[in-house]
Specification:
With about 475 residues, chain A is α+β, with helices and mostly antiparallel strands. Chain A has 15 helices and 18 strands. In chain A, α5 runs parallel beside α14.
Chain lengths: ~475, ~475
């Protein structure tokens, strides 16, 4: 691709920034809250607005009904490139309560401040309208400056991401032929810091298990039975304690089978990122890392599997005291998985671990909640290398390649249903207050996000 | 005492049984749950009802306010006897949750069945309203048949027994001159079996502790923080597991200091009682004894200290799943003590045990619930011999002299503050489901309990 062509597109971005902001503001004014049925027509309006905008850009755009809120799908055949990318974003937003905590009406977007510190304030400014519009504006700049897209581009915009993406799996299955591409581009994540973009290549999977342990056939008085009757809360405690070794590793048999250590190059990069463990933990009132000894917080969250106790209940938990030995007790326990771990094997290993600790006159029942494998983009992926090069050109430094401790369900669905890897590149910041009152998006995120996608599209076009 | 006088009182008991049941039912209808502040006025109502009933019997009765629920105190100078007995019972009852497991409304007492198998069903039917009313009805029969009590009788009815008896120590100190008697009679224990009454001469003490562990300053997402952030439910599990050794003994430092093995003579009597461990456990759906290896169930409950987990709550415990690392979690834990153990030392040892397991960036707060030492009545007490004779006359066989696993804190307070021994004679059964849904009391327990007290009062009057 001629260098002066790319420069022309980038110049177009900067020249058109004010108009880009106007369009984002128009989208932000639509209160497309997906979890509240009262806002269904606004979700439809947001989908219509996006399809109209994409059609105006020359995309073959349509609004597709689902059992929930509609999908927006758009395609552009692009210039002569063998590459096909699928961009994913979501146009629905979180509810705005508690409204009293907002310093401005959440659906009346405004620009506050100027220069480097200017921000766009509105519900959805960051999550995910601001982020998805970085890609649409990049497409617009390509079209305006060159008349075409540098590669074949498909776009999928969802309206139920904040409501559990209920319609997505069936929609992907039904539209697989249309949506399958060489790579998915997902813009719903954070930058490393204000100077450093990030590509998320690892996402942990999740296995949730609920156990209920029953011992005696009724609640017992601890005076009359204490010592001699098995106490299910004692068993729950012993099971919880048995799940971690003294060194903090997870003690379920075979838990680490297939788990590989972080490549040394990645570990080096992570060290160089200067992640501030003290601040990360200090922000939530902690100072001593838990978990596996000898591994950094960043590695533990991004690249190591974990086991967490999410809830326990049993016995008398009201005011005062009741000297009861309860008949039953239960716990919710989840495992975060990394690449190489099979969710079903982990589930079975956990159940065997628990069963081995239940006396023969007691019983345990298991309820599974979700089972998703981890996602990991191969470190040597040429598309990753191309995207990293584009980001380096825009930001003047290496992007951080990171793992995310949480799950982003759509990425798993793309992998499972379309056999497609994802590049997670976003320009949000941890202080954007997504899901909270007073959400914002930096104008710098918006402008340099658009420019980043312009470059990434150019880079990925070169198959 | 003329034998025909005693016969007249016993005949009065049988003739008045229906009216006695009516009065018990009236008391059972008052939901005097002491642990829940919402029921305070019902505790007051139960105290008022009892004082009114005792005044109607000719006792000098009054309701005495405390910082918690009131005490009922009543006195009758009785006939010319040198003996003064103090009867103790408690009018408060346990909470009723889980309400869904009750087969009938807990405060709508009813009579179910007939003849030998008739039972009174209600919360408090056994613990302790049914039991305390056996004594009041015995007094009523004495008054009705002879016009007076055979000895000087004082009565103390408490309303905080199920809530740790917080007001009792100060009340006993302030009322020592009024309440000190030759012996305390306490009706809050079980019979050995349906044919054999029991006098409990050993009683376990109790120390209750509630711990709340706080880690992060807010609930955390287990994806973003899992592994690296300390989880208070994990800590609770580890603490629970650390409280018992693999051989079932309690692992708190110094816990068994001062604890002596059961005397060989008592061990022999217990063996002769033919206690059926399989049936005892089988009745509540269990078959494998828990607790200390190598000790019988009877010894473990009657003569060995224990540690029980009475309640645990933390994290998400509703329907479905939430991948949260909670900011806090709490547990209620109690210790049953035997002679030789100091409640304050046990409490401090437990707190030290827990503190040693709390990381420096987390915190634990302790709330103490009750602290009572174990009790042991001298085996050669003449009052014990008199009571055993009265029981032999009523039941036609020797009463069992046993140890009780439960704690009756007042007995320790009587010993400590009033220098007074207690005779623990109760008519409850192990299947009464006290503290559990569907509590009951056998009508036979009620009738023969009243008759037993009639005889015991006669026997004790003969100093």
């Amino acid at each position: 691709m001629p260098h002066n062509q790319l420069d022309a597109v980038l110049a177009q971005v900067d020249a058109g920034l004010e108009a880009s902001l106007d369009r984002l503001f128009a989208l932000l004014r639509i209160p497309s809250i997906s979890t509240d049925p009262a806002y269904a027509e606004h979700c439809q309006a947001a989908a219509d607005w996006l399809a109209t905008d994409l059609a105006a850009l020359g995309f073959d755009a349509s609004v597709r009904p689902t059992e929930g809120h509609p999908m927006v799908v758009a395609h552009d055949q692009g210039a002569a490139s063998a590459r096909h990318v699928l961009f994913y974003g979501h146009y629905d937003v979180q509810p705005v309560d508690p409204l009293a905590l907002w310093e401005f009406p959440p659906f009346e977007p405004r620009l506050v401040g100027s220069g480097d510190t200017a921000v766009i304030r509105a519900r959805g400014a960051s999550d995910d309208k601001g982020q998805l519009m970085t890609f649409l504006e990049a497409c617009r700049a390509w079209k305006a400056a060159t008349g075409s897209m540098p590669a074949k581009v498909s776009i999928l915009l969802e309206g139920e991401e904040e409501a559990g993406s209920k319609s997505l799996p069936a929609f992907l299955d039904a539209s697989a032929g249309e949506l399958e591409a060489d790579i998915a581009l997902v813009c719903d994540t954070d930058m490393w810091d204000r100077q450093t973009p990030a590509v998320t290549t690892m996402l942990r999977g999740l296995v949730g298990e609920e156990i209920e342990i029953r011992c005696a056939s009724q609640d017992l008085h601890s005076g009359m039975f204490g010592n001699a009757a098995r106490n299910p809360l004692q068993l729950i405690g012993e099971i919880i304690a048995s799940l971690r070794r003294p060194d903090g590793s997870v003690a379920v048999d075979g838990f680490y089978d297939g788990v590989e250590d972080l490549p040394e190059a990645m570990r080096d990069q992570w060290r160089s990122l200067g992640f501030d463990e003290s601040k990360f933990l200090g922000d939530v009132g902690l100072s001593i890392p838990a978990g596996e000894e000898g591994r950094s917080v960043l590695e533990q969250i991004g690249a190591r599997p974990s086991c967490e106790i999410n809830g326990v209940i049993g016995g008398y938990t009201g005011e005062g005291f009741k000297t009861v030995i309860p008949a039953k007790a239960s716990a919710k326990i989840s495992f975060r998985l990394v690449a190489g771990q099979d969710p079903q094997k982990i589930r079975e290993a956990f159940r065997a671990h628990v069963r081995a600790r239940i006396p023969a006159d007691c019983s345990v029942t298991f309820s599974g909640h979700g089972a998703s494998a981890a996602i990991a983009l191969p470190h040597d992926s040429p598309l990753l290398r191309q995207a990293l090069g584009a980001l380096r050109d825009e930001w003047g430094k290496e992007a951080a390649v990171v793992g995310s401790g949480g799950s982003i369900p759509v990425v798993g669905e793309f992998s499972r249903r379309l056999g497609m890897d994802s590049l997670l590149i976003g320009f949000a910041h941890v202080d954007d207050r997504i899901h909270s009152p007073n959400e914002k998006y930096d104008v710098a995120s918006f402008r340099k996000g658009i420019r980043s996608w312009v470059r990434i599209l150019a880079a990925l076009a070169e198959a």
